[in-house]
Specification:
By secondary structure, this protein is mainly alpha-helical. It has one domain (about 5-195): Up-down Bundle (Four Helix Bundle (Hemerythrin (Met), subunit A)). The chain is about 60% helix and about 0% strand. The chain has ten helices and no strands. It has helices spanning about 5-20, 25, 35-55, 65-75, 80-85, 100-105, 105-125, 155-160, 170-175, 175-195. Helix 3 (about 35-55) runs antiparallel to helix 4 (about 65-75). The radius of gyration is 16 Å and the shape is globular. The termini are far apart.
């Protein structure tokens, strides 16, 4: 496949991610305490994703500083910063968190860590610009535009191309666009598995 096809696939997933993040605004009504804290956290991640989306969809000129800043925002709100806001028993409305989070805590924690890892790598890669590294396509053929670590974690195998998760060495040379694909796939996988579209209580 061409780079454009891979980019289109990743960005199509991103549209859904941003749409569900935007829906949090109305869901905030009545939210208090830890539920409001994590909704606010997701809003900040969503805002950063919108900035990155505009850049990687080439709606705006590539801005390394903006990419790095947005990626750092995501990094700082991922990992334990995210999981600590999901204590067991906090799934009641207006929360949109599924009980599956606590039934599959190991998977949820791994996705939060993946988001931290990929966004940190994207922040570091920002100065490299929006070009393939070493002539390698910034898609699944080039270490996985859609993020191979999502296999078996909510993302269809056909979208992942059967790729393995990138090693830490791969992340250090991967182009920003490919890393953004990993960030996007991680968000989409987590939303698919652990977030309700509407209250199901």
């Amino acid at each position: 496949m061409s780079l454009n096809k891979y980019s289109t696939a990743a960005l199509a997933v991103l549209v859904a991610v941003i749409a569900t993040a935007s829906a949090n605004v109305s869901a905030h009504t009545g939210a208090t305490g830890i539920v409001k804290e994590r909704m606010d956290l997701m809003d900040r991640i969503g805002d950063a994703m919108k900035v990155l989306s505009g850049i990687f969809k080439r709606e705006h000129a590539y801005d390394a500083d903006a990419v790095a800043k947005s990626a750092r925002t995501i990094r700082d709100h991922a990992g334990t910063a995210m999981t600590k806001l999901f204590p067991e028993g906090s799934a009641n409305p207006p929360s949109v968190a599924k009980p599956e989070i606590w039934r599959n805590w190991k998977s949820f924690k791994a996705l939060a860590k993946d988001l931290e890892t990929y966004s940190a790598a994207l922040a570091d890669a920002a100065p490299r610009g929006d070009t393939p590294a070493g002539g390698m396509p910034s898609g699944p053929a080039g270490h996985g535009m859609m993020g191979g670590s999502m296999m078996g974690q909510g993302m269809p195998g056909s979208m992942m191309g059967g790729q393995q998760a990138p090693t830490s060495d791969m992340l250090t040379v991967m182009p920003p666009r490919a890393l953004f694909g990993h960030v996007t796939a991680t968000c989409a996988s987590c939303h698919t598995k652990f977030r309700t579209e509407k209250h199901e209580h």
